[in-house]
Amino acid sequence: MTTWTTTIDSPVGPLLLTSDGTSLTRVLFDAEPDPEWSTEPCALLDEAVRQLEEYFAGERTEFSLELAPAGTEFQRRVWGMLREIPYGETTTYGTLANRLGNPRTVRAVGLANGRNPIAVIIPCHRVIGADGSLVGFGGGLDRKRALLDHETEVATGFKSSLW
User: Fold this and answer.
1) Would you list the domain boundaries of the chain?
2) Would the pLDDT of 66 be above 70?
3) What's the distance, Cα to Cα, between the start and end of the chain in Å?
4) What is the DSSP track for 132-156?
5) Helix (H, G, I), strand (E, B) or coil at 36
6) Is 54 helix (H, G, I), strand (E, B) or coil?
7) Is residue 15 a contact partner of residue 32, using CB atoms and an 8 Å limit?
8) Catalytic residue among 27, 44, 120, 124
9) Helices 73-82 and 106-114, interaxial angle, to 10°?
10) Of all residues in the chain, what percent carry a pLDDT higher than 90?
């Protein structure tokens, strides 16, 4: 099976995107492509790049891409819930665990959140600690803060100087 890849520059650093030709499979920070992956043109990656550019320009608040993140059933359930967090808003790991029907899964929710293979588009950056603090983000807390600030500023009409 062919994996297509491209890398884009963004205000939060380089993003590596991959596709299986029908779905977006990864958006990763600071990752290197596998030499076996194809860099030939891929319409789905072109669309993903366009939508990410619109997001970073403050012109897009929702993504409309076919996604196929690789993970366990539990991880995919958590990632599905992440996609339901409204743009410019946050939730907690505990709230997500409660929505899953078991508040004791809060740690597992955190681990699933940290293994999200499609950063930004599956908005794991919108999950914060119970006390409102920024905790755990595979791209680093500076990127998490930048993404949250960007969304808050776009949602309130104040344009960020970071972009």
Assistant:
1) 4-56, 73-156
2) yes
3) 37
4) S-----TT-HHHHHHHHHHHHHHHH
5) coil
6) helix
7) no
8) 124
9) 80
10) 85
Sequence-distant (≥ 6) Cβ neighbours of residue 38 within 8 angstroms: 2, 3, 4, 5
Which tens digits make up the pLDDT trace of 95-154? 999 999 998 999 999 999 999 999 999 999 999 988 888 887 778 889 999 999 999 999
Could you tell me if residue 43 is left (phi over 0), alpha (psi between -120 and 50 degrees) or otherwise beta?
alpha
What sections of 64-156 are H helices per DSSP? 73-82, 93-99, 106-114, 141-156
* Rg, Å, the chain Cα set: 16
Could you tell me how far CA 119 lies from the centroid of its own chain?
2
Annotation marks residue 124 as catalytic: yes
Q: What gap in Å lies between CA 89 and CA 65, rounded to an integer?
A: 21
Q: Quote the CA–CA distance of 17 and 15 in Å, as a whole number.
A: 6
Number of Cβ atoms within 10 Å of the Cβ of 85:
18
Task: Enter the tokens of residue 43.
Answer: 């319409």
Give the confidence band of 161 by pLDDT, cuts at 50, 70, 90: low
Q: How many helices (H) and strands (E) does the chain have?
A: 5, 5
Query: Is CATH 1.10.10.10 the right assignment for the domain spanning 73-156?
Result: yes
